[in-house]
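BUG: 3D viewer hangs when loading the predicted structure for this chain

Environment: internal workstation, default settings.
Expected: structure renders.
Actual: progress bar stalls at 90%.

Input used:
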Amino acid sequence: MRTPPDPASPPTPPPTGGSTTTTRTRRRTVTRRALIGGGVAVLAGTGGSAAWAYDRFLREKVEVSSVSAAEEAAGTSATTAALATDGAYTETGYTSSTTTITLTSTATGTGSEALAWYAAEIEVDDASIIRSAFAQDEFGQNITDNPSTMASDHDAVLAINGDYYGFRDTGIEIRNGVIYRDEPARDGLAFYADGHVEVYDETATSAQELLDAGVWQTLSFGPAVLVDGAVPDGVEDIEIDTNVGNHSIQGEQPRTAIGVIGDNHLVFLVVDGRSEGYSRGVGLPELGEILAGLGCTTGYNLDGGGSSVMIVDGAILNQPSNGGERATSDILYVAG
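Structure tokens produced before the viewer hung:
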């Protein structure tokens, strides 16, 4: 999530009142547009170098030109689970012989207290059904694409935005069993091939050690908003990055998060925000509380703000704060 806030063009809010929960898949036209973040404008306003700003925030820096080829070379393509051919979308989500997804949408409150979120409870037979995709099939900084495009390119059943790894040059990034970055900096989230998922300290290990221990995916953003079923003390004061344009993740914001119920049993959560009368967004403690209410014992915050999006069967389910999806560097998705 980057500051200053994205230019807000909130959608017309649906009528709300009281608290309701429904299970449905909403289909609507996907808006395909990319909005450049506010970093360059911030630098211009403070007399920063235009050349430095271009290099930092806009210039694509490709480190791996073909992620598909990297996965093939590493042999991880051959180790992924065979995808089911019997999958079908239902009124409440998706089912196949390997995957069950249950979608819920929840709206509470009215006016300035209105809040809306979308949750996908996911159960898979094999951890490799949860996969990652990079924009343009490349790895590096400032390489972006619309999440719906990435989801379509990979036939994703369900997708959410990831950690926007391309906005920074730190963190441990292992995706689909391949190491792409080994610059420990913060608490990360590790998905293991045996199905368990845990928060870990990047600075206490290395990408190779994690891979050797059976890690399939890592995400590097945070913080953890739920640990052993409880919201950690002081989570509301944590900052993830201090670089220009990304100072704080605090306050009531649109959010994307991962919750862990058990092995191969996850929750993808998107909370809408910045739209009074529809959804105000949440702070980090409240995000953890929502995940706990969904049965999770571990919860981890991902990139949010205008990036927060959930895509089901090719359609955007939530209402992004930009009025449409924002281009980002990566997604996490359910393959089938």
